[in-house]
């Protein structure tokens, strides 16, 4: 990172809803990809996700105002897609530092970072950089796994939120994990809503529960695509049967207007295990609705 000729970003095909590729003082949201999967414990390949999500977003661009939102995203937000964060192959510490530098740069402009993983480890340096600028944040976490396991190294996508809470990055009592359907029997300070509760719940009721917990706190939203059942999202590294349906998630996201979102990411898309781009398209669709959520804050 000390090389004067080092470029922080690699060019990439722009996400279809981005209005420009360079961020400036007028930018509201910055999209950046992190093609990193060295922390993966299951099937590798999430490093190719940023490109796949951008490509799939081309299927969404024809709809000037996404149904059922009542306004045009392009008229509300100035979105810059800066491409992918650059780092040396095999250099996990360097990759994490590059992410921190990227997020710091975004926040210095007063913009909101939106990150395409990569595996879920990329969320840790994002939080580290954000908290260094603004203090601890609330966390809204969609996943099949808690990623709060203490047994792994720092460079383990299953230990992201263990390290995040150990480092004081998260607000006490304001962490919610939704869609979990793997072991979470160990003591945790987080509020877990397992998948089996969501199977029978109404999105509006879950949204109200989230709003009551988060209040007006700054909220970081992280979405692991394996929260969705692999019938709808097969292209992921650690698929778990019994997940949530896309229509429930979309309805829930749209009910979250009013929260104070300060950052978002979509992670763990693995194109090599996808079929007909359905997982990448789902990730692009979720991203679009999440951007509409950010636009609704303005």
Summed up:
The chain has 9 helices and 9 strands. The chain is α/β, with parallel strands linked by helices. Strand 5, helix 5 and strand 6 form a beta-alpha-beta unit.
What is the secondary structure topology, with strand pairs?
Elements (H helix, E strand, L loop, with lengths): L8 E2 L18 E6 L14 H8 L16 H4 L2 E7 L6 H17 L3 E6 L5 H12 L2 E6 L17 H7 L3 E11 L10 E4 H5 L3 H12 L3 E7 L21 H9 L5 E8 L10 H19 L2
Parallel strand pairs: 2-3, 2-4, 4-9, 5-6, 5-8, 6-7, 8-9
Antiparallel strand pairs: 1-3
Helix pairs in contact: 1-9, 3-4, 4-5, 7-8, 8-9
Radius of gyration: 17 Å
Whole-number mean pLDDT: 93
Strand content: 15-25%
N- and C-termini, Cα separation: 36 Å
Q: What general outline do the C-alpha atoms trace?
A: globular
The helix/strand class is alpha/beta
Tally of helical runs: 9
Strand order of the largest sheet: 1-3-2-4-9-8-5-6-7
> What oligomeric state is this?
single chain
State the total count of DSSP E strands.
Answer: 9
Order of helices and strands: EEHHEHEHEHEEHHEHEH
* Regions with little confidence, pLDDT below 50 for 5+ residues: 1-5
Q: Helix proportion of residues, in percent? A: 25-40%
Molecular structure report:
The chain is of the alpha/beta class and about 300 residues long. Helix content is about 30%, strand content about 20%. Residues about 1-5 have low confidence and may be disordered.
């Amino acid at each position: 990172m000390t090389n004067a000729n080092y470029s922080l970003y690699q060019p990439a095909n722009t996400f279809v809803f981005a209005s420009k590729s360079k961020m400036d003082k007028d930018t509201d949201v910055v999209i950046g990809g992190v093609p990193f999967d060295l922390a993966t414990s299951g099937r590798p390949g999430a490093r190719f996700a940023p490109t796949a999500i951008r490509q799939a977003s081309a299927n969404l661009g024809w709809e000037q105002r996404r149904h059922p939102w009542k306004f045009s995203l392009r008229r509300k937000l100035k979105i810059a897609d800066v491409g992918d964060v650059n780092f040396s192959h095999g250099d996990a510490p360097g990759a994490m530092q590059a992410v921190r530098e990227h997020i710091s740069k975004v926040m210095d402009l007063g913009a909101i970072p939106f990150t395409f993983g990569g595996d879920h480890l990329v969320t840790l340096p994002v939080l580290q950089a954000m908290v260094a600028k603004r203090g601890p944040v609330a966390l809204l976490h969609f996943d099949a796994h808690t990623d709060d396991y203490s047994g792994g190294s720092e460079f383990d996508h299953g230990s992201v939120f263990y390290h995040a809470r150990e480092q004081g990055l998260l607000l006490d009592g304001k962490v919610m994990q939704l869609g979990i359907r793997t072991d979470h029997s160990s003591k945790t300070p987080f509020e877990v809503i397992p998948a089996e509760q969501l199977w029978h719940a109404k999105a509006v009721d879950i949204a109200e529960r989230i709003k009551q917990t988060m209040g007006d706190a700054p909220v970081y939203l992280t979405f692991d695509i394996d929260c969705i059942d692999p019938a709808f999202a097969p292209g992921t590294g650690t698929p778990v049967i019994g997940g949530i349906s896309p229509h429930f998630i979309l309805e829930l996201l749209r009910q979250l207007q009013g929260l104070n979102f300060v950052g978002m990411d979509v992670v763990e898309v693995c194109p090599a295990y996808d079929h007909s781009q359905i997982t990448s398209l789902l990730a692009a669709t979720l991203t679009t609705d999440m951007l509409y959520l950010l636009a609704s804050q303005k």
